[in-house]
Amino acid sequence: MRRTLLTLLGATAAFGILTASYATAELPEQAPAAATIGIVDLR
Fold it and tell me: I need a surface site. Which of 21, 34, 39, 43 has the fewest CB within 10 A?
């Protein structure tokens, strides 16, 4: 039981750290958002 709780706590902490580091990262402005997401204009 204790190992399960520690594992869940560790996973939650790791996810929080990765989310925070990704949210504060300076992403390069290469292309418009539509091209980055992959929206295709079918005209």
Answer: 43
b/e for 2-21, b at 16 or more Cβ within 10 A?
A: eeeeeeeeeeeeeeeeeeee
Q: Rounded to an integer, what is the distance from CA 3 to the centroid of its chain?
A: 26
Whole-model pTM above 0.85?
A: no
Q: Read off the pLDDT of residues 6-40 as tens digits, 9 standing for 90 and up.
A: 999 999 999 999 998 887 776 666 555 555 555 55
Cα separation, 19 vs 5, in Å, equals 21
